[in-house]
Write a structure and sequence with these properties.
This protein has about 525 residues and is α+β, with helices and mostly antiparallel strands. It folds into 4 domains: about 1-130, Uridine Diphospho-n-acetylenolpyruvylglucosamine Reductase, domain 2 (2-Layer Sandwich), CATH 3.30.43; about 135-250, Uridine Diphospho-n-acetylenolpyruvylglucosamine Reductase, domain 3; about 255-340 and about 370-460, Vanillyl-alcohol Oxidase, Chain A, domain 3 (3-Layer(aba) Sandwich); about 480-535, no CATH class. Helices cover about 30% and strands about 20% of the residues. β8 (about 205-210) and β9 form a beta hairpin. α1 (about 1-20) packs antiparallel against α2 (about 25-40) and α1 (about 1-20) crosses α4. It is globular. The model is unreliable at about 1-20, about 485-495 and about 530-535 (pLDDT under 50). It binds flavin-adenine dinucleotide (FAD) and 2-acetamido-2-deoxy-beta-D-glucopyranose (NAG) (4 copies). One 2-acetamido-2-deoxy-beta-D-glucopyranose binds near residues 294 and 295. It comes from Flemingia macrophylla.
């Protein structure tokens, strides 16, 4: 610690040098120069700075960017990309960006719904700190823990755990290409949430670069900041370098199934029943519903197909007993059930074709990319069957609509609302995610965006109220940002309360303490109170 402080002190002394240089040099050169001054091994950095004239710039920018909407030519691009190779390079880049006044975006897995990790709509110039090369996963079975580096995907984490043990797992996202740097900062839910809670609920420690360029672990950062980074959303408090996670037990045999019913096959009645059953059923069982347009019984007729897609932490026999007792309406049979290992159930839920080898997870890549817009709701009261019957009409007005209904209850309702910044706990029956996707770029964008806003408005009577809760990991820039002054975001009804409820106030307090100059910022970052005072 003593040495670290000494090194930091000399950093600060050197910083004045680079500041004066910055006035005459192009931004990336000033940045590079600053890094060389502040990093132990000079001349290492030029190999990882990519300007827009560099042939690799686009492929690196596009590599993990998940929403094609934020790669359109009209969308601002970073002035340069820096891909650090170790923790102290991340540290140096924060120090240098701050000194040179370069606005920084931080990217781990690039799955942000509004591209906030690689696009700034509010400030120019900006740089991209891309952590894709930092992806170590060190599993320690003896202690049921793992240290995982921010650029690793959650699929890599699952794979590395399963490589060492078939009876350990981790409860986080369903989509295996998510970067854990961004994913866990917003909560991280998946098929084991009803049993074990969120990824963020199972974090034991972290290493973070704060706005002063210090590397801090849990002990050094203190419990307020450690609380804030486990659900307060990415890009507000610092750069997460590592998470230390707690592994959870999983059985040798788990069972998965997908059963689909169209409206003609009683889909609405069944979905009405699911709302009452799924949040209360055995915690080993997670049944989500994937809702998409489907083919009706008459050729050419469009209907809605509801797919009950499930993971059960146990064998098929016990699953069938649970279903017979609590959800006989689905009519699950042993033929629908697939017994498999936990890691293969991960592949199944993520949608990989049958028989895909788990090694696919090591590619750390997403399977497909589209242009999309999404939103989310938390539902606290059962939607009547009659209302379901009418909402399908609005749903089918879009040509690429998708809804995923995801049950809560179990462990989710036993963790206090203020235990982490993620507040959607007791009383939530399920979460709805709305997605509209398309492939023809700008051409049909407006049509899809308009439909999404209309459908979301249509759903408001059924959603949670005061505030209408929303999942921060499903970023939505439509939600109430008044940029006239930076205090207005603290008013109820704005995105802060909708993502975090009462926890927003504490997040603002932590932010004010750890990053008063608001170095880590984006369109919906937690604002410090100090920005209102202007010094
Ligand atoms: C196809 C798809 C499927 C999804 N499935 C799930 C799911 O099953 N469960 C779930 O909970 N969520 C899911 N999500 C949402 C996902 O959790 C969020 O988009 C999450 O923020 C992605 O993390 P990332 O590192 O990939 O994203 P990024 O775009 O890299 O980052 C997201 C945000 O975090 C910030 N950030 C990134 N890295 C760091 C870091 N190291 N330190 C500090 N801040 C950082 C970024 O600046 C940005 O604000 C899904 C998203 C997509 C696109
Ligand atoms: C692109 O940038 C990389 C990393 O800085 C560098 O190694 C490479 O030579 C550059 N290529 C071109 C064509 O400028
Ligand atoms: C619906 O029918 C079309 C044309 O027959 C087919 O291409 C498509 O795959 C079908 N969709 C579903 C969900 O069965
Ligand atoms: C609000 O905060 C942003 C940074 O997040 C800053 O650039 C802007 O100047 C602030 N606006 C006011 C009015 O203080
Ligand atoms: C910010 O705006 C709100 C509402 O318009 C107002 O009540 C408040 O006084 C403003 N704050 C500042 C610092 O201007």
């Amino acid at each position: 610690m003593q040495t670290l402080r000494f090194i930091l002190a000399s950093f600060v002394a050197l910083l004045s040098v680079s500041v004066s240089l910055s006035t005459s040099l192009p931004l990336e050169e000033a940045f590079n120069h600053c890094l060389e001054l502040h990093y132990k091994t000079p001349n290492q950095f030029s190999s990882s700075i990519y300007t827009s004239t560099n042939g690799s710039f686009s492929s690196i920018l596009e590599s993990t960017a998940q929403n094609l909407r934020y790669l359109l030519p009209s969308v601002p691009k970073p002035d340069f990309i820096f891909t650090p190779l170790d923790d102290s390079q991340v540290q140096a880049s924060v120090i240098c960006a701050k000194q040179l006044g370069i606005h920084m975006r931080v990217r781990s897995g690039g799955h942000d719904y509004e591209g906030l990790s690689y696009v700034s709509l509010i400030e120019k110039p900006f740089m991209l700190l891309d952590l894709a090369k930092l992806r170590a996963v060190n599993v320690d079975l003896a202690h049921n823990t793992a240290w995982i580096q921010a650029g690793a995907t959650i699929g890599e984490v699952y794979y590395r755990i399963s490589e060492k043990s078939s009876v350990h797992g981790f409860p986080a996202g369903l989509c295996t290409s998510l970067g854990i740097g961004g994913h866990i900062t917003g909560g991280a839910y998946g098929s084991m949430m009803r049993k074990y809670g969120l990824g963020a609920d199972n974090v034991l420690d972290a290493r973070i670069v704060d706005s002063s360029g210090r590397i801090l672990d849990r002990g050094a950062m203190g419990e307020d900041l450690f609380w804030a980074i486990r659900g307060g959303g990415g890009g507000s408090f610092g750069v997460i370098l590592w998470w230390k996670i707690k592994l959870v037990p999983v059985p040798q045999t788990v069972t998965v199934f997908t059963v689909t019913r169209t409206l003609e096959q009683g889909g609405s009645k069944l979905l009405h029943r699911w709302q009452q059953v799924a949040p209360k059923i055995d915690e080993d069982l997670f049944i989500r519903v994937i809702i998409q347009p489907g083919n009706g019984s008459v050729p050419g007729q469009r209907t809605v197909a509801t797919s009950y897609n499930a993971q059960f932490l146990g064998g098929a026999n016990r699953l069938l007993q649970v279903m017979k007792h609590d959800f006989p309406e689905l009519g699950l049979t042993s033929k629908d059930c697939v017994e498999t290992s936990w890691i293969k159930s991960v592949l199944y839920i993520a949608g990989y074709p049958d028989g895909t080898a788990p090694e696919v997870l090591l590619q750390g890549k997403s399977s497909s990319k589209v242009y999309f817009k999404a939103k989310s709701d938390f539902v606290r009261e059962v939607i009547p069957e009659k209302s379901l019957n009418t909402l399908w009409k609005v749903f089918l007005q879009d040509d690429g609509p998708l809804m995923i209904w995801n049950p809560y209850g179990g462990m989710m309702s036993r963790i206090a609302e203020s235990a982490t910044p993620f507040p959607h706990r007791k009383g939530v029956l399920y979460k709805i995610q709305y997605v509209t996707g398309w492939l023809d770029g700008e051409k049909s964008m407006e049509k899809h965006m308009n439909w999404m806003r209309k459908f979301y408005f249509y759903m408001s009577p059924y959603a949670s109220k005061s505030p209408r809760e929303t999942y921060v990991n499903y970023r939505d820039l439509d939600i109430g940002m008044n940029r006239k002054n930076n205090t207005s975001v603290i008013k109820a009804g704005s995105w802060g309360y909708r993502y975090f409820k009462g926890n927003f106030n504490r997040l603002v307090k932590v932010k004010t303490k750890v990053d008063p100059s608001n170095f880590f910022r984006h369109e919906q970052s937690i604002p410090p109170l100090a920005t209102c005072k202007k010094g």
